[in-house]
Amino acid sequence: MARYDFDMITLGAGSGGVASSRRAGSYGARVAIIEESRIGGTCVLRGCVPKKLLVYGAQFADAFEDCAGFGWSVAPPRFDWPALIAAKNKELDRLEGIYINMLKNSGVEIIEGRGVIVDPHTIEVAGRHYTAETILIATGGHPTVPDIPGIAHVISSNEALDLAALPRKIVIVGGGYIAVEFAGIFRGFGCEVVEIIRREELLYGFDDDLRVFLAQEMRGRGIEIHTRTNVARIEKDAREGYSVFTAIGQEISADLVMYATGRGPNTRGLGLKEVGVETTERGAVLVDEWQRSTVPNIYAVGDVTDRLNLTPVAIAEGRAIAETLFNNNPMKMDHNDVPTAVFSNPPIGTVGLTEEAARRQYGDDVDIYQARFRPMKNTLSGRDERTFMKLVVDGKSDRVLGCHMLGPDAPEIIQGLAIAVKCGASKRMFDQTVGIHPSAAEEFVTMRDKTVRQPQKEAAE
After folding, report:
1. Which of 139, 344, 383, 459 has its Cα between 20 and 30 A from that of 330?
2. What does pTM read for this prediction?
3. Could you confirm whether 437 is annotated as catalytic?
């Protein structure tokens, strides 16, 4: 007789939890997955997928505007926001059904409700206890907001995906990828957009040149960006709109206020402290290189660990656990050189080290190559936007340490270059690669002139 009800119970049916559970089930493990909401998690239901569908919708504004330069004449376009939201929701329903079927086809039992860990091998759901040899925490994260007067008036990215109607004007507080993506979405649909950030530039942690270049392009699209600005309070006004007051007394009125100032791990009330699972001050589960928590049979993946909060990372971490525990194939997730994208307008793709990170690690012996150009499509459309590309190279070994791009198709192009960076390709190998002409991507293999930077020591003097 089996000692436990299951070999593994997963808390959370998002991308990481589903990936690990499916793979474990396919290897013959007895697996259950517990979810208190819908199957699919943040990415499928409240993040990557619905957001990207809205990004696609917003991009049609550019297409209609640009088509005249290529000989097309169309009647003035009309946009129907409720129709897009309905189509988006229909697609999410379809994807949720696919996720449910994939779990069932792998033999995974779905348990609806909120799970709480009551001991290292037991989870309680609605008064019923389920036991397992291994417990996997994959509960993801949630939007967080500061405690300031009037914060109850704001929406998060969750609500932004299901608005009944578009606002005429929106204030977005935050400078991270969620904030800049929604700024581009709302602007594309014709809304006035004001973005408020505390720092000097957008996208803290990304390459500095990309950050500056994105702000220029966003401002060129009519997005108003207030830097080094803190919000003091938010008030509802007589016209059913809102007033945002900054720390220096400035008042900004809008129909809607959205906060995108960070996300926190979903660990509250899970019973982690009671069973000995250590967490950070933010509530993230502390794990080792095998994704194990401080309780050896309890693992965690994805945003709940608050490291690289990316869907493909959560999936890779989850699959590594399944391989290690249930397929006799010990596997660790490699968190180095993970590519990522920001679906801003224009979009960003990046992999490897930023220039700043490279100089911290390699000193002044870092070579920088850059390209700025007007995409061919814009020559006929008349659009002024430009593309920016950058290579960060180790001056001693000639290894390409980072690839960064802002412009159309940047995520698609960087995905291919990520393989080269992961393989340790050299700048010489890039130079020896024949470009595809005419394409934007060929610029990555034709950059020859180094960007001259003042050495750090001289700059500091």
Report:
1. 139
2. 0.94
3. yes
